[in-house]
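Below: protein 1.
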Amino acid sequence: MIGLLKIRRCEKNIFRPGKYLLAFSLMAIISSLQDTSLFSQDLQSRPVRQQALEAFSRGDFEKAYNGFSDLLNTYSKDPLYKYYSGVCLVQLKRDPLTAVTLLEDAIRGANIVRTVPPDGLFWLARAYQQAGDYNKAISSFNSYSEAAGKRKARELNVPQYIKECNEGRGALAATEIKKNDERKEPEKPLPEKYDRILSEALVLQNKADSASRIADNMKKTPAASGEAGTVDAKKKIIDAETIAASFQKKADEKYNEAHAVADGMSVQATPVPQKDTIGENRQKVTKENNPVSMVSAGVLSSFRVAEKPVYDLNEKVQINPPVPQGLIYRIQVAVFRNEVAPSYFKGITPVYGFRTDGSDRTNYYAGMFRTKADASKALLQVRQKGFKDAFIVAFSGNKIISADRAAVLEKEWGKKFFIDDTQGTGSTAVDTIPPTLSFRVEIARSEKPLGAEAEENIRKLATGRGLDIWQLSDGTIVYLIGKFITFESAEDYASLVARNGYRDAKVGAWLGKKEIPLETARQLFEKLE
């Protein structure tokens, strides 16, 4: 404004340049001094920032924290400096509540211009864990896993941290679950929906506990005790335990949803991993039937044969998947020009297809193994399923290598675990998360797929409820609509479908992709009431 006034006066005194030339010169000098001061300040911060980043990169978190703390004294709202300061505190295992505050502010304050690294949620979860706030830690770990993917989560050991949180471990001394009034943020009244969601969680928890008690009581009966226990009695116990696990899973989702509402987060149910006794039993059975060794954090081999596989007809064999580094043995099962349905491989999983550029043939391989001994054991099972010409092939990356070369590499790679992140065929058959029990409406069951027109009509009928088309272990194909919580609601819908021309529609009970007797499911539900 001062400059504009002087310019206007200068227009009236055009023939008196000396006076105004001096004024303009003074203004230019003042402006340049201000710019030089700002530039100098930026130059002074650059060595501190560079030194802090270098210290952070080499793992000197004490020096890095001091550097970023100094930067925050000048740039108090910079989300990136808050991020690095918070991560340093987590790495130093110091003052987790301050780390929580820094990382929360960093994530909230990030924007297009000033972003924070994508692992911010992971470090926030670690800060919550060190502070003893296990529920928030689990929620943040799950959010990070969903955003970054399972591979990144495993690389950062997220499953182990979640397990520690579920067991109440990982808090630093003297920080275990601080009272809310010790936190900087004032208490906020809980939303109205919190009580409703929590009530739903308690109802589901009660049903889970009831189903567990039913299973325990069944075990005490003479019909189920000892080796003389009947197959039918033991089957009912397994069904009851699986139903209990299913209700427990739903209850945990509701608990997590309630915590999300209480924390002011978006209401989205995120499953909290729980100890799965049913999954443990399935893994024990798998290990007994299949001698190939497996571990949870990584595997030395990936192979199994499902006794009664159920296939989604929309599922396809993955072609040219990513491969682990180093030596991998595979079992070549078949070579085809056209795509092959997963059901062709009779429950063998995983199966992958590899096709070279310029070729119209696809080689199909079963399993992945670090050692030839494990591959040879699996080869016997593959041949027992009818693939008499199957044989072992050794790979280094994507390249086929000789048996002699493989023997040399096995000394280096034979005991190194790998992560099987590919989907293959049937890779989700062994699931550590209990399948959900639900009543479903069966529209049709046939030995061959229905015609395209008939299938399209069923899809239109299922609009909004979902349609699954599965091929069962005996080769028959079943068409299922919806997932109903109660038998009555499923029966009402089945009656409606029957009145619309599908007279064979009926209600069935399913645990995931496993069909269980309808009466067994109904009796269990009645006992839970």
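Below: protein 2.
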Amino acid sequence: MRAVRLSVGLALAWSLVDARGSVAQCRPYIFGTGHFLASWAGQPWAYDAQAMDKMVEMGATAVWVDFPWAGMEPVQGTISWAYADHQVATAEARGLQMFAFVGTTPDWAKLYPDLPGHRTPPSEDHLADFQAFHMAVASRYAGRVRYYQFWNEPSGCGWINEGCANGSDCSLFTTWQKRAYDALKAGNPDCVVSAGGFDGDPAGYVNCMYTQLAGQRAFDAISIHPYAPGGPGGPGTSGEGIDYSDLASVRQVMVDRGDADKSIWITEYGWNTTNETQRAEDQAELLAEFKKPEYHYLFFAKNLVLNDWNDHDDDPNDDFCCYGLTDEYFNPKPAFYTFRDFNKDFDDIVEFSADATVGQPPMLVHFNDHSCVNGATDWFWEFGDGQSSTEQNPSNLYVYDGRFTVRLTVTGSAGPFSLEKTEYIRVGTVAEILNPSFEDASHFLSGWSSCLGGESSIKHNPVTHVPLPRFHDGSNSAGMSSDRAGDSLGPGAIWQTIAVRPTHSYRVHLWATITASADQYVDDFVELRLRDGDSLPLNCLNGGANVVSSSVLGAHLDGQTAPEWVELQGEITPSQSLMTVIAYWRFAGTVRAIHSLHLDDWGIEDITQRPQADLDGDFDVDDTDLDLFQACATGAGIPTSGPDCDSADLDSDQDVDQADFAAFQRCFQGPGVVPDIGCAD
């Protein structure tokens, strides 16, 4: 197969040329797995070969390899390469793409000698040793191993903490992440480095890292472990044991921080269960979910382990159960066959995004191709303003007002495929909410951004919601719910930025209903909030404090036992040319047995009082208004010709004559200038 054209952000182009020169299809590495290594099990190294043979049998495309500093340099100055070389050669011989773990600290280099090596960084005295090791690894395997993750779960049990309660203190880890990144890049400038397998509150931790880095580069991707709160099968999940909202929340932080072009890796997922039928069902659901176009940013996903481990001695503490798709002898479980038989081919799909879809001219828009077109060789963009481009990820400058339809055509091995987004780019001052009733066929949240806390997830017209119908108008709504006692549904929000005229007044409304089954419904609420401008990225961290502090309250609705659709309204006079409309909600926590929330049918209207003599409704009085006035002129004592000319009768005497023209002249200011409201008086 022939090589494809790559974008500048090589790690993020999904049709990739792999290390062996063949072309992998779109996003191939979401079908990855790890295994319980021979070195962990105390088995002959051939055990790894057996495991990787089984991976190939089940159609895995990527494997996890282990390069721990603590294990490879137990004696200062002497690196043992043998087992790492063995892993690389074994994976390479089977055509498996390698994703490598680096991290841990040897006993001789620990900052905290009493902590195990996976929980303590080195001391400053051993910074040079740390840098030398990671540089040597990247250099030795350049051209063979490209993808690296530094450390594992520093946001939880993998860092300096007690009881896995590392919380949001990311400062020391971020320092070492930056050092690892620089050392790996020095050893191999083409390597791709991910930060740390975050669990717990990954979005909060990643946000902390961005703040700490203050614009410095320390990672090319973010790795997460989206296990459900409370463990596999825990509450708040879209699939048993997997919390998809972690993906959405981390993605939003990355977008807000200007890293929309960076990818997310899931370097652990799985189910600790002996219910093999359920595991197989969940495996099928998860793989199908990961293939969806909305996860275009998901570059790698790894089932935790292929194989369980049981050495059949009297000590169960050295066993590893029960995440595997096989037993310790590689006898398949049902989920193995689910993985093997799952259709790993991607349909040819065109998808793209823009870094801004609304604004004022001149408006520079950067477009990103997220298409999955096999064998892609050519891209042709039509921006709707007469301009076009053949770059994969182009930019376009919109210089005049309008609503512009953007079309992308990608040509691959099966021919050209196209996607057109109608009126996707809105330039100018027409205030409009996109997809106001969540009816967009491409995705129900198209046009909206979102953030979540706790175990929340936003659903499309979810069946567990009450009341019925689950929509206010049309056939769809957006919201969230849970019917499982013990769920901890945290704060959440959806929002959209729209173009407005500064100093104009706007009324915004939406319909909402919120249910909670307990005595104190005031603890659960939904609010309409409005923000002047869009400069500060929104997120739901710290209980949604960022949402509340950067916006004003438009309307508030408490939870109800017998919910009804209620219209929420708010008014704002923005000082900037953009404003943000927000629906923000909070649930009290685990005391509720059932929560439900629905949002539907947004709307906005300009309620600014129009100046007299503004006959075309654009808030200025110019030549266009003069033409309309002249068309309505009747002369003294002659009635106006109809209701369309009533506004030209500026002195309200039922005619349009010289007196009205004199009043019109007092209001005439030219295009773009708003005269005084009573200019004709």
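Residues 1-24, 230-240, 464-472 have pLDDT under 50 and may be disordered.
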